[in-house]
Amino acid sequence: MTTALRRFPHWPRALILAAMGVAMAAIFALDTLTDYAVAAAVFHTAIILVAVRWFSPRVVIGLTALCIVLTLASFALTPAGAYRTGLINMVISILAIAITAYLGLKMVAAQNAAHEARTQLMRITQTTSLGQLTASIAHEVNQPLAAIVTSGNACQRWLAQEPPNLAKAGQALERILGDAQRASDVIARIRSMARGEAPSRQSFDLNDAVREMARLSDAELDRRGVALDLQLAPALQPAWADRVHIQQVLANLLLNAMDAMQGTPAAQRRITVTTQALGQQLVLTVADAGEGLSPLARTHLFDAFWTTKPDGMGLGLNICRHMAEANGGRIWATDREDMRGGTVFHITIACAPATGDRSSTGLRHG
Ligand SMILES: Nc1ncnc2c1ncn2[C@@H]1O[C@H](COP(=O)(O)OP(=O)(O)O)[C@@H](O)[C@H]1O
Ligand SMILES: [Mg+2]
Questions:
Q1: Using CA positions, which residue lies closest to atom 18 of ligand 1?
Q2: If 366 and its partner were Cys, which of 141, 300, 329, 361 is the partner (CB 3.0–4.6 Å)?
Q3: Distance CA 39, CA 109 (A)
Q4: Which ligand is nearest the CA of 308, by number?
């Protein structure tokens, strides 16, 4: 139906209707003037098919009725031939016209339904991705914002002291500025990821990035009574990834590790972060001494909106996976083997290309 419309969008419907009228008159004349044996009335089915393409169901039904009336009239007016054959031909013609109209209208209804469903699906996909984007930003920005509030409160306390501790207040302000910068970086990265842009990969020191993130998580770790152990491989080759992405992944894993250890005895609440080189890749791991992974968690861990926490969003690990993969790496979880319980998350990160071919993009994929 749409092909014809697309090809001749300017054709006035009146012209088509007139052409159909001429054709119907011709079929009527042919059916009437030839003898009963010639079932010219079946050509009315062509009229119905054209009508289905161009006109509303009501017009199609009207034209169908008209075609049937014309078939009956031409049967009555046909002067010659075997009457019985004519009767059978007339019945066949009328059935063919009615069935064509019925099937044609059904087809148009199905096409309309399919079109409607496609439009609806597009709308749903758009709102879902918009909702997911908003939720991701809210999720990722929540942590730096909470840190800003904590540091702001600390800053206020240092300033309220008599005499004010300006050095400490200055440090708190520095943390606020760092967190605010990180929040705005995070938004920029998520937006560019949602637009399908490639991450901005650069060469950087993975250990430095980990130390920086550890510093930023200090207040939260303190608040939850969790110790952080950094076991960073010395003289690590530079990493080749989007530094902010890797830090966001680490931030999410640290938060999850802290959440998982809420039921762990205070003395055992420890997160170990390691870095190491493995062939042409770097591996970052985050191990906790928490509740470990349930069989259900193992299958749904990285699904968007899958959470076991009452106030969870279930987006952290989904974002982590997107970011790890966008940077050519991989992320997966295993049980912790050196302790009674806990989970280890592993992320692979590409090493920076050797100096000289660093200008080329994309390069090594984990
Ligand atoms: N370190 C961990 N130990 C045990 N379970 C975890 C750990 N990290 C994540 N999970 C499980 O995976 C789920 C999804 O995590 P995530 O995507 O970060 O969303 P959220 O933290 O909002 O629940 C969590 O609700 C939790 O059940
Ligand atoms: Mg989480």
A1: 316
A2: 329
A3: 30
A4: 1
**Which residues lie with the beta carbon below 6 Å from any ligand 1 atom?**
252, 256-257, 260, 288, 290-291, 293, 297, 301, 306-309, 312-318, 343
Q: What angle do CA 6, 10, 11 make, to 5 degrees?
A: 95
What separation in Å is there between the alpha carbon of 318 and the centre of ligand 2? 9
- Ligand 1, atom nearest to 252 Cα: 18
Q: What is the dihedral angle through the alpha carbons of 142, 143, 147, 152, rounded to the nearest 10 degrees?
A: -10
Going from the Cα of 349 to the center of ligand 1, the distance in angstroms, rounded, reads 22
Using the structure block, give the residue that is written with the tokens 């510093």.
215
Nearest residue (CA) to ligand 1, atom 27: 308
- CA 254–ligand 2 middle distance (angstroms): 9
Of 139-143, 144-148, 269-273, which gets the smallest average pLDDT?
139-143
Q: What is the distance of C-alpha 254 from the center of its chain? A: 26
pLDDT tens digit string along 286-332? Answer: 999 999 999 999 999 999 889 999 988 888 899 899 889 999 999 99
Q: Identity (one letter) of the amino acid at 237?
A: Q
DSSP 224: T
What does the angle CA 143 – CA 147 – CA 150 come to, to the nearest 5 degrees? 140
Kindly give the residue spans of alpha helices, DSSP state H, lying in the chain. 2-7, 13-33, 44-54, 57-77, 83-160, 166-194, 206-223, 243-260, 295-300, 316-326
Residue 235, helix vs strand vs coil: coil
Q: Which amino acid is at 72?
A: L
